[in-house]
UniProtKB/TrEMBL annotation:
Renumbered ranges of PPR repeats: 73-107, 174-208, 281-315
Protein's recorded name: Pentatricopeptide repeat-containing protein
Keyword annotations: Repeat
Stretches the record annotates as Disordered: 309-335
PROSITE patterns: PPR
Domain of life: Eukaryota
Organism: Salix suchowensis
Length: 335
């Protein structure tokens, strides 16, 4: 391939990376065809990736692009499977898996992770078990992506024992695996077990992230604000988590719980913690003021709002509160 062709291909890839909608993608794809890259699996694969993974992707367009590729590789097939899984169309996802097999292409960890995720999300128990057997046949059941997806899939099937057994077979589970296992317990209504799993994770020296606390806070949601606060405070104090990057999120969520339950005393303690971490975060002022207001302590509520104005802190716009933004529990590679 000439230097000119390489530079043109790089330019096209650059455009694809900055693509934000299907309208733009179709224009770039037209340019791809015009430049003679329609059979370049690397370039066309990027087009299909956008259709499959983007929030406003279009799998019907992905199919039209796929059908013009003379010799699609495993990556392109995996992307098609992933896209139809995301579109909640398991039949087509498995159709492409079947075609992939018929063409003699080797299924890999991504293939099975995407298919297992489809089975879990849509409650396809029999298909999920069959795919589990296939991972064993291919020797991929111990691959980190596959194993994590298997744990999660059985959790979505409400088969917590299968999830737990698979998790316990992981030699040194990383944070993502712990998060998944904790989430499985929560989704199965086993809240105490979720908290026990979290405590065990901390004993193993695994530092939690925001995703961990999302599921833990969910597990604690039925507790009263005081018990909830004591539990969080105990975990933080006993496990040296004060410098954890997720702590502002944790304290802020607890402050929101204090407002909900009208627990002013705990709310004041939580606010002190937040002042040390992020002293001018607007949501904290609003939450504490509303906590006072819900308890009928209007003078304190006005004092907080005046302090907010004095420090020049702007009230958050509607819909922009940090509280309630839940990070993904899992990386999208491939979960």
């Amino acid at each position: 391939m000439s230097t000119v062709s390489i530079s043109k291909e790089e330019a096209v890839i650059s455009f694809l990376k900055n693509c934000s909608c299907m309208k733009d993608l179709k224009q770039i794809h037209a340019r791809v065809i015009q430049l003679g890259f329609e059979q370049s699996r690397f370039v066309v694969g990027k087009v299909i990736v956008f259709c499959a993974a983007a929030e406003h992707g279009d799998m019907s367009y992905a199919v039209s692009v796929f059908e013009k590729i003379g010799d699609p590789d495993a990556f392109i097939f995996n992307t098609m499977i992933r896209g139809f899984g995301k579109a909640n169309d398991p039949r087509k996802a498995f159709d492409y898996y079947k075609i992939m097999q018929e063409r003699g292409l080797e299924s890999d960890s991504f293939t099975f992770s995407f298919l297992l995720k489809v089975c879990g999300q849509l409650g396809l128990v029999l298909s999920g078990r069959i795919m589990h057997c296939s991972t064993l046949k291919h020797g991929l059941d111990s691959h980190v992506f596959v194993r994590n997806t298997l744990v999660h899939m059985y959790g979505m099937f409400k088969d917590i024992e299968a999830s737990r057994q698979l998790f316990e077979e992981i030699p040194n589970p990383e944070l993502v695996a712990w998060n998944i296992m904790i989430d499985c317990h929560v989704s199965c209504g086993k809240f105490n077990e979720a908290l026990d799993m979290f405590s065990r994770m901390l004993r193993f020296g695994i530092e939690p992230d925001e995703a961990t606390f999302v599921v833990i806070l969910s597990a604690c949601s039925t507790l009263g604000a005081l018990d909830f606060g004591r539990w969080v405070h105990s975990c933080i104090s006993n496990n040296g988590l004060c410098q954890c990057s997720a702590m502002p999120f944790v304290w802020r969520t607890l402050l929101a719980a204090c407002r909900l339950h009208g627990n002013v005393e705990l709310g004041e303690q939580v606010r002190k913690q937040l002042l040390e971490l992020e002293p001018d975060h607007s949501s904290d002022y609003v939450l504490l003021a509303n906590t006072y207001a819900s308890a009928g302590r209007w003078n304190e509520a006005m004092r907080v709002r005046k302090t907010m104005q004095k420090r020049g802190v702007q009230k958050p716009e509607p819909g922009n509160s940090v509280v309630g933004r839940h990070p993904s529990l899992r990386s999208d590679e491939p979960l």
